[in-house]
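Hi R.,

Here's the chain you asked about this morning:
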Amino acid sequence: MGPILKRLRSIEPRFEVGDIFPPIEQELGDHRHLFVGRVLNAGAGHRDISHLVAGELVNQDIETGLHNDNIHVYSPLHDIPFDDGYFDAVICNAVLEHVENPEEVVAEFARVIRPCGALYLCVPFMQPEHLDPSDFQRYTVDGLAALVRRNGFDVHEASAMHSVYTTLGWIFVEWLRPFPGWRGWLLRWAILPWVRRKALTSTSQIRSLASAFRVIAERQA
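And the predicted structure, written out as tokens:
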């Protein structure tokens, strides 16, 4: 790499995939009335949503070997160590794509949620592969709604998530990050700042290009 190109690379726009998504408060905020009482954050990772929950929050995730102060319970999602009907609500946000057995997982959610309790479930649709540690599936909105209905829930809402620019942004990041030479530098300057700004400010949705789909469901009595 020549000195000019090295200089250009040092001043080019850089951002991570997370920079094109709205904050968690914006994603969950309109549904915080559901997160009351005992709430399980299934597959919590490092995201702190305690300020969105009115009650007792339990953060669950799998053991990875890395220390995480945010996690209260380590277990696989198909084997949650709580009694039947223990939780008033379960939040599973952008996690189900990483499990090999989604039917068992949603059935386990139904077991630990009390009758008429709430399930908030969001799963990617038009997102590139992202391993954490694996990546098994994507769902259309109809497929996601059918999954929860098969496992004892009534669907109250099924909708697209994020703007079309969020979908485009992740695709552009994956495409342009390794793009070599001065052409890659020009493309990154021309596209990445624009798509990041649009992803964070636009509400334009195209369902067939939805970044993710969300289902709000109630445990059948």
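The chain has a mean pLDDT of 93.

Let me know if you need anything else.
M.
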